[in-house]
């Protein structure tokens, strides 16, 4: 079954609620649900009435990166900044490990998460999603590595680094059951740890989203390469709390805004062209 966020996104696109009235009065905060009237007239008001925090990673190259006291940057940040410009709001950022995103959003009604999070049925039981792009999974190895890695079957007998709580971790665990020679699985807390494991030969192969891996390989000074067949192309989404449907509705409506759709396509195409 599709998530409520995805269903809402389809409805909003069909009835054209992306053309939100930015000067409408704030006579209702949509606390009674996602009515058409609410979506048309109160999205700006609702977003401005809350302090919305975004929890995300610091090392998802090209999508979102952050270090020191510098502001975050990347595709995800550009989208959220444009939303802020349209609706005259400021988002606060906080940073955590990938495994923290779902429970943090699940337990905090005014926190959302934007990253390269795959929409899965298991996660949809815990949080709502607003889809904003699709991507597949790829394999990354050292440039000097010459063993065959075309797909999951080729991981048998190898040492593989994956992000803890990721779909790639589940994929490798499922594949391991089928292997005659076991996979040595290293579940690490961050993408940086996964890349470091491959670079230092602590792991032979790393798995993650193709776009992130291509960006990492491009910036590795020819130390890393992406190999094999991209698999499991799935929608990725922004996480929002199931108990805060007005906020989820607001995000759905925001992402149906025609100008944002156009910008998102341009920025995303730019990201891929650079990979």
From TrEMBL:
Transmembrane portions of the chain: none
Signal peptide start and end residues: 1-20
Domain Solute-binding protein family 3/N-terminal: 51-274
Lineage top rank: taxon: Eukaryota
Keywords: Signal
Family matches, as InterPro entries: Solute-binding_3/MltF_N (IPR001638)
Protein name: Solute-binding protein family 3/N-terminal domain-containing protein
Organism: Adineta steineri
Organism phylogeny: Eukaryota, Metazoa, Spiralia, Gnathifera, Rotifera
